[in-house]
Amino acid sequence: MSDLDLLTQSLARNVKRWRTERGFTLDTLAARAGVSRGMLIQIEQARTNPSIGTVVKIGDALGVSITTLLDYERGPKVRVVPPEQVVRLWHTEAGSYSRLLAGTEAPGPLEMWDWKLMPGDSSGSDPHPVGTVEIAHVTAGELALTVEGVEYRVPAGSSVTFEANAPHIYANQGDVPMEMTLTVSVPLAH
Predict the structure, then answer these.
(1) Percent of the chain at pLDDT above 70?
(2) Alpha helices of the chain — where are they, by DSSP H?
(3) Cα 54 to Cα 60: distance, rounded to the nearest angstrom
(4) What pLDDT score does 143 carry?
(5) What is the pLDDT of residue 72?
């Protein structure tokens, strides 16, 4: 079985599990996540590989991290994530990517990402739930972060924190690759 098949099956199991645990009907989750009921049915039946944006919306609506949605076993309190288990969820032909390094519930979802954006590449994000905070530390190049239409320049060695309940875009407008570690904290769903 391929990695993609394993991810599709884990996602199917976990979306259904967390939806049931939260007491959400398919219609309720669809409305909360802004995803069609048909798409949710396909995800829960492991018949589709949704975009990372769709998985993020479902995770936000359920109040769980992407890691939790893609992971079957909750396991012990300590979890070591070896390099071969790091999940690359987004990439471009130019070589840009985002990799989910680790995640946990603390008490809401808490995720740590490794991002690389090649010159000229960008990635936009829909608003996350109110109370979501992101912290980025740029290790190479310069991040051009746009939040609610305002651009902020974050050079290598600098960090930025922001409330992520507004549309935001990560971009590399420079001529060298931009690399950053990004942490996302989402509040517990109510």
Answers:
(1) 89
(2) 3-22, 26-33, 37-44, 52-62, 66-70
(3) 10
(4) 96
(5) 56
CB-based burial label for 60 (10 Å; 0-12, 13-18, 19+): buried
Residue in 119, 103, 166, 111 with CA at minimum distance from that of residue 136:
111
Whole-angstrom distance, CA of residue 57 vs CA of residue 66: 10
Residue 21 to residues 33, 124, 180, Cα–Cα distance (Å): 16, 30, 34
Q: What is the Cα–Cα distance from 170 to 103, expressed in whole angstroms?
A: 20
pTM of this structure = 0.62
Q: How far apart are CA 143 and CA 139, in angstroms?
A: 10
Query: Token pair for residue 45?
Result: 């039946």
Strand bridging mode 122-125 / 97-105: unpaired
Tokens for 4?
């993609």
Sequential DSSP letters for 89-139 = EEE-TTS-EEEEEEEEESSSEEEEEEEEE-TT-EEEEPPPPTT-EEEEEEE
Q: How is residue 95 written in tokens?
A: 């070589």
Distance CA 28, CA 23 (A): 9
Q: Could you tell me the maximum CA-CA distance found in the chain, to the nearest angstrom?
A: 49
Long-range contacts of 52-57 (CB under 8 A, 24+ apart): 52/89, 52/90, 52/98, 53/125, 53/126, 55/11, 55/89, 56/125, 56/126, 56/128, 57/33, 57/126
